[in-house]
UniProtKB/TrEMBL annotation:
<protein>
    <submittedName>
        <fullName>Nucleotide-binding universal stress UspA family protein</fullName>
    </submittedName>
</protein>
<dbReference type="InterPro" id="IPR014729">
    <property type="entry name" value="Rossmann-like_a/b/a_fold"/>
</dbReference>
<feature type="region of interest" description="Disordered">
    <location>
        <begin position="138"/>
        <end position="159"/>
    </location>
</feature>
<comment type="similarity">
    <text>Belongs to the universal stress protein A family.</text>
</comment>
<dbReference type="InterPro" id="IPR006016">
    <property type="entry name" value="UspA"/>
</dbReference>
<feature type="compositionally biased region" description="Acidic residues">
    <location>
        <begin position="142"/>
        <end position="151"/>
    </location>
</feature>
<feature type="domain" description="UspA">
    <location>
        <begin position="1"/>
        <end position="137"/>
    </location>
</feature>
<dbReference type="Pfam" id="PF00582">
    <property type="entry name" value="Usp"/>
</dbReference>
<dbReference type="InterPro" id="IPR006015">
    <property type="entry name" value="Universal_stress_UspA"/>
</dbReference>
Amino acid sequence: MFDTVVVATDGSESVKRAVDVALDLADRFDAEVHALSVVDASEVDASPEQLREELRTALETHADAALGTVEDRADREVKTAVREGRPAAEICEYAREIDADLVATGTRGRHGENRLLLGSVAERVVRTSPAPVLTVRQLEPAGDEESETDAVAETAADA
């Protein structure tokens, strides 16, 4: 059912659970895992010109760390990529390029406090992705994340 899974990550707390669920699905279907992080070009372009290269480098370093987290959590090979551009567009283009069967993302990223339900990037990916999109919300700290993650993964695997 799933041969290629893309995990879109920005390294935020809300994406950690999405990474776990996506890796669980990949394990269950023996799927190839791709982790993608996008350096938001609008953040770079909005910064003062004399700081752009320094900001770009810092954002690329952050993206590499986010991808490293996915690799550390996986018990299989993970193909990684860092892109620069508009995050939703880059995620969808990457999914199209590798013919992904599933794109997994958190529902709130670094800008999540400004959104009510889905983060703006997740919402755009859901609307424009060439592949089905699995959005995973972060649970409240009071819940048992491990059992909830298994339940979500089982539900998605049964779909």
